[in-house]
């Protein structure tokens, strides 16, 4: 096994890039930050981040980065609609990929990534950072003890006054809006915790404010082949933010709040301070460590490109269910 630090570049020096740059540079035995790469029009921001995180260089041209032979892996923090075309080109240039969620905006796009990963033999991991909180990890360890079938109820609400970045205004670019941005957090943990085959989705979405093209509310019901049932409510209109999951089984209940605080049958299991993670935290560091270990061990990362594709299939079914006014069989 190669224990040399992985030589890593980041493409997309926007809002979430700082959390990843913190993770890449946190443990020098895992990785060396080779480059921060941005578009030519954001030269100043790219250089500022490259300096702040002691990168070997700032790059202002994606093609130049892809042609570099001193980069093993790329962390990708670009808008949702750029994920698939960029991931395929990175894989074709011989570099592993840690892709921010969602893997892509459609199943068809996701398939291009899954295929490029298979053809190259390289690792693709999806950045579902919320799996990596201690509370979420413990929930996953305890969920089997609840028995089957399970019911899961997740309510994820934030208040977004206006689009924080241009591509949020476009439903095509963002993948809707609430579903494209926060759907992956809700759906990925449902699939991960229930660990059964999803069979059917019924959803309704709404736009309560006209600051964007996409939906700012989504409510859905997801059925699984073992009889488990999940409901999700994703909103960008919650002036009182909320992130609560309840998981019930025949033998007990889990309650996970903010992905960090966990109760089993009302008894505290994990309690952690809630701090915003946009500037980086232990979940992003644990996520990055999983990526490096998957590359070193030559195994699929968890979550893999296939895991990301399953999430995208449900995001797509939510939009299809809203359009058709019917449940969608997966
Ligand atoms: N894990 C999380 O909780 C979390 C939080 C925020 C964002 N995200 C995800 O991270 C990604 C980035 O989101 P953000 O909020 O940082 O967006 P952003 O708009 O702030 O940043 C995007 C960056 O990508 C660059 N970019 C745009 N088009 C590009 C192209 N064609 N090639 C190369 N670079 C390009 C932009 O210039 C910018 O630097 C999205 O996929 C989003 O869903 C995840």
TrEMBL record:
Pfam families: GFO_IDH_MocA, GFO_IDH_MocA_C3. It comes from the Bacteria. Residues 137-254 form the GFO/IDH/MocA-like oxidoreductase domain. InterPro entries: Gfo/Idh/MocA-like_OxRdtase_N, Gfo/Idh/MocA_oxidoreduct, GFO_IDH_MocA-like_dom, NAD(P)-bd_dom_sf. Signal peptide: none annotated. Residues 6-127 form the Gfo/Idh/MocA-like oxidoreductase N-terminal domain. This is Gfo/Idh/MocA family oxidoreductase. It comes from Nocardioides potassii. The lineage of its organism: Bacteria, Bacillati, Actinomycetota, Actinomycetes, Propionibacteriales.
């Amino acid at each position: 096994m190669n224990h040399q630090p992985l030589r890593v570049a980041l493409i997309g020096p926007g809002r979430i890039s700082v959390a990843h740059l913190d993770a890449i540079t946190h443990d020098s035995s895992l990785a060396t930050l080779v480059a921060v790469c941005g578009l030519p029009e954001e030269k100043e921001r790219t250089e500022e981040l490259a300096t702040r995180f002691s990168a070997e260089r700032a790059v202002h041209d994606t093609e130049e980065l892809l042609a570099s032979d001193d980069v093993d892996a790329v962390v990708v923090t670009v808008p949702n609609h750029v994920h698939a075309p960029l991931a395929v080109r990175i894989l074709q240039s011989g570099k592993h990929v840690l892709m921010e969620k969602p893997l892509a905006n459609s199943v068809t796009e996701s398939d291009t990534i899954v295929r490029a990963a298979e053809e190259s033999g390289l690792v693709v991991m999806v950045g579902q950072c919320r799996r990596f909180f201690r509370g979420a990890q413990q929930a996953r360890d305890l969920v089997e003890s609840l028995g089957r079938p399970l019911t899961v109820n997740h309510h994820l609400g934030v208040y977004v006054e206006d689009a924080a970045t241009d591509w949020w205004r476009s439903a095509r670019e963002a993948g809707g809006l609430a579903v494209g941005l926060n759907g992956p957090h809700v759906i990925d943990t449902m699939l991960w915790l229930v660990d059964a085959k999803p069979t059917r989705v019924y959803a309704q979405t709404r736009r309560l404010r006209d600051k964007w093209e996409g939906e700012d509310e989504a409510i859905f019901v997801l059925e699984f082949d073992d009889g488990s049932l999940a409901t999700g409510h994703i909103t960008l209109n919650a002036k009182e933010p909320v992130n609560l999951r309840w998981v019930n089984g025949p033998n007990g209940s889990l309650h996970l709040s903010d992905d960090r605080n966990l109760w089993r049958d009302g008894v505290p299991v994990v309690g952690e301070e809630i701090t915003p993670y946009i500037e980086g935290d232990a979940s992003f560091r644990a996520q990055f460590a999983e990526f490096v270990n998957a590359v070193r061990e030559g195994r699929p990362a968890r979550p893999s490109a296939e895991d990301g594709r399953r999430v995208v299939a449900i995001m797509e079914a939510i939009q299809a269910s809203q359009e058709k006014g019917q449940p969608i069989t997966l």
